[in-house]
Design brief:
Layout (H helix, E strand, L loop, with lengths): L1 E6 L3 H12 L4 E7 L2 H10 L4 E4 L8 H11 L4 E6 L4 H10 L3 E4 L4 H12 L4 E2 L3 H10 L14 H11 L4 H8 L3 H15 L4 H11 L5
Parallel strand pairs: 1-2, 1-3, 3-4, 4-5, 5-6
Helix pairs in contact: 2-3, 4-6, 7-9, 8-9
Length: 213
């Protein structure tokens, strides 16, 4: 029996996915979460083999959730289920520890098989996304002069550490500041860069050339 934990901030979607998975006798849904913090709380008492994870969630998004889960529960396989098909994001998530990446328009059969393949340690990827990943690896990020807001040096430090997949606590330790200060810088970056999560922030930073050394 494969134990699956579902994470998505849309309740109706969660209920639908749960119904689909519970129709397969080889799968057991051990819980549902609306954000990354809830994922970590559930994993404390309900062990899971596969985490089916959305990318954009409040409080703790998919990318930050991967970082925490792989650190605290390294054996959990993480399968992304999202609407984002951008190659650079897919590449980032695989580097962060995701086992697979499926789109939400995948069929029921593809979703169930993807979970089983992820459980076995196989890489899972919607077929047409392969070309997008190759593109993202071969293209140099585009610089968009004139559109950049003013970002302070400390905010840039935080941004680059986030891109290195450090947690909020690790960033605070690295910069010798409190976690509240890091959170404030992160919120300011979200506003200045007009994004809602870490994935969008890193993507835009790459486009602007802010992560180039």
């Amino acid at each position: 029996m494969i134990r699956v934990l579902l994470a998505d901030d849309h309740l109706i979607l969660l209920q639908g996915i749960r119904a689909i998975l519970e129709s397969d006798p080889g799968l057991e849904v051990v819980g549902t979460a609306g954000n990354g913090r809830e994922v970590l709380e559930i994993l404390k008492t309900a062990p899971a083999d596969v985490l089916l994870l959305d990318l954009q969630m409040p409080e703790m998004d998919g990318l930050e959730t991967i970082t925490h889960v792989k650190k605290e529960y390294p054996d959990v396989k993480i399968l992304m289920l999202t609407t984002n098909d951008e190659g650079s994001i897919i590449t980032t998530l695989f580097k962060s520890g995701a086992t697979g990446y499926l789109l939400k328009n995948s069929s029921q059969e593809v979703l169930i098989q993807g979970i089983k393949d992820a459980y076995e340690g196989k890489k899972v990827l919607s077929p047409h996304l392969t070309a997008k990943m190759i593109e993202s690896l071969s293209e140099k990020p585009k610089s968009l002069p004139g559109l950049k807001p003013r970002i302070t040096q400390r905010e840039l430090d935080v941004l680059r550490l986030i891109a290195r997949e450090l947690t909020t606590q690790q960033i605070a330790d690295e910069l010798f500041v409190s976690t509240n200060t890091v959170a404030t810088h992160k919120r300011n970056l979200f506003v200045k860069m007009d994004v809602t999560n870490s994935v969008g922030m890193i993507r835009k930073a790459m486009d602007w050339g802010l992560l180039d050394d």
